[in-house]
Amino acid sequence: MKIIGIGDLVLDVYMNEKEIIGITSGMSFANVIYNITRLLKEDKSIEFESIIYGVCGNDIAGNIILKELQESGIQTKYITIKDKKDTRKFYIYLDENSNFVASKKKNYITKKESWYSTSIVKKDIPEELLSRENIYVLGSVSKNFRDIMDMIEEKEGKICLDLGHIAAFRYISLSKLKEMLTRKYYIVNLNERVAKYLLTRFEYNEYKELKQIFLTDMLIITKGKEEIEIFVKDIRYVLKNGNINYTEKDPSGAGDLLFSHYIVANILRENNMKTKKDIKEEIQYFTKQELEEIYNNANKEIYNLVSKLGARIRVDIKKPTEEFVKIENTEEESKEVKEKNINKLKNAIEKLEERVESALLNYNEKAEAGLELLKDLETNKNQKYICIGSGGSSIPSEFTKTIINNTFGVDIQTMFPKEYLETNTEKYMDYLNIICFSYSGSSPEIVQLLNGKYNNAYIVTKANEEDLKISLEEKNIDISKIRIISYNNESSKERGFLSIEGIIVPSLIMYMLVEKKKKEEMIKVFKEQLEKQREKVENYFKENIEGLKKAFKKKNIIDIYYDNYTKPIMCDLESKIVETGIYRCTTHEKKNFSHGRFITLEKYPSDVQIYLKLKKDTRYDDELLKYLSIYSKNLIILEADEENNNGILELLIYSQLFIYEISKLLKKDLSNPDYSEDSMKIYRYNKEII
Q1: Above 70 in pLDDT, residue 495?
Q2: How much of the chain is helix, strand and coil, in % rounded to 5?
Q3: Number of other residues whose CB lies within 10 A of the CB of residue 626
Q4: pTM surpassing 0.85?
């Protein structure tokens, strides 16, 4: 029998705000394999091999993990060592007494991160690792792990699933979530947060109903250190912990150790059954007394585990080498690496087509919210509309305002959330409709304004509709006036500070509504435009590379010229340019520029002038461009090939590719700006804004 753990390996780094205290191997699936190996060795009744099928980087962290696994008797020959990947690290923050405070993906001191978002474990697990006798431990249901589980199922292998997070399936449809999770398992372990989330999503009333999804004879739900709820076959047991360590130093690995004890108990019971004949069915399953005995034995070990630092019993954290500390704590080296790396923005651009297609295909064209908004726009001319969004969400807000006004001629404007909250809407609140753009749909500023007065509130969001309703109800929002336009995306999550998908997808959803296009037609339009604009921007940079290198030097000043139709693109470019921290930017409405603002260009010339225009030229455009050609250093004209809504969409897509080309030119990931800790305090501010 083989005990096989599958996943990306992680090094746990223990540190306080001044220094690194120690390091050791981590990650739930690997901790479980370590525990099973130790417990079965102590029992000595079963012949087995322990194996990790996974991946780590070719670096110090990876070498430490490999050595610790080998010392524990776990085979490492199926671990892929990647030359161009850093091993994932998890940072355990400690207080002045070296007690656990929090666990993060960023170094406490330098704020460096060594955590790639998408697993790189190969989905083609070797044939020699597939057998119905084997036990497999996994902690993820993302695509490559599901592919691996499919291969295991074909051989009738025993899958142990440990789910501790909901991030991988928060924004996907209910049918897809059910498809992702439903299969036969050996044992399933859920923490209470995950179990409650699934209960809500599937509209179940009791935890035992989760067994419709997790087809297993044993489902464990951990409720902190106090108790567990466990289902064996169809019988529910609640087990209380009478041996809690209230002076715990580090809770890391406690849940993994508990899960390991139940896996080992099942292995030993099955092995014992093989030697007996004519066993009655009821004897094949654990009694409450037996389950309590396993729980008590696990808690005795957990008591000792949490008394020390480290996620594995009998493994102490090790003092890091000087070389490791130097690499971890050298901020300048971190900045140098960032200068060479444009991975986050590159990934956002390369995955854009996939993410757009996934979001549009999952959008329900018959959803009442979108159809109701369209009907109001077409028939009720007395209504007033305000589009609201902040950060990246302010761009689809501006885009929606522009195309709705172009198409329907209604009274519509845009505001930031704080601006709206400070505006007196008392005289027209009975016919006021707000259209809120929010990635989560429940950010504190959106919740605050939803508590106000209005006719209807439409929320354009990536959040699941039912989840969002529950979340808003919990915040005492009257959801009878809330209409949710949800675009669940089943693709991978966008990473990086600059929003690409978060701008394009909601803009396309609203364009599709306004233009009355089917989603398949909209996908085709987008793909054609993306290809066209990609070729257009790449050719422009190739033909003008030398001039652009001079124009886009760091710390240059940029002017953007826009009109009503190109304002959404101005907002997008200005936002991206300013938020990168490498340029300053001033924006000018084209006609307003003639009211004396030209003096700044003559007296204090900017380094780059970006002129936004649709296909049609006006007399004023001609005059202003003549003037700018005299006084500009580097005049860049971003012109659409079409007019009206089509031209605006065209330029919005171009804008994403344009900023990516600048990123390539600078060899810097503009989606990973170097923000100070002081600035992050206001970025993370999540309390009331007025």
Answers
A1: no
A2: 45, 20, 35
A3: 9
A4: no
